[in-house]
């Protein structure tokens, strides 16, 4: 990224949308391959990543952050709970809400999977500085889109 000239035609929103979409699809494909080798899905890794902060999250929030419909998330969390990777509890402040939490076994699994995911990122040879710039730009984009 750094050192590459910016072409005026590359600033067209269609180009940005296509590039972001293509990058997401290609990266997801590669991550699925790696996670499949560990017996896990991309959605499972995403859910474990959301819960990895240990705070516990409402299922509605996990659904939104993982881009999963509520019914699909419930089935996925049921599966992860059966494997003792996550558990659910009624929210102490709002008994109508269910919160999901990661277990110690889930944390260990998440750490192992995240090492594999980071190795994929390392294979890309983007470089530390450009990786940081890309992260910053994507956060800006996500922030702008979330507030629309």
From TrEMBL:
Pfam families: MarR_2. Transmembrane segments: none annotated. InterPro entries: HTH_MarR-typ, MarR/SlyA-like, WH-like_DNA-bd_sf, WH_DNA-bd_sf. The keyword Zinc-finger does not apply. Keywords: DNA-binding, Transcription, Transcription regulation. GO terms for molecular function: DNA binding; DNA-binding transcription factor activity. It comes from the Bacteria. Residues 13-146 form the HTH marR-type domain. GO terms for biological process: response to stress. This is MarR family transcriptional regulator. It comes from Phytohabitans flavus.
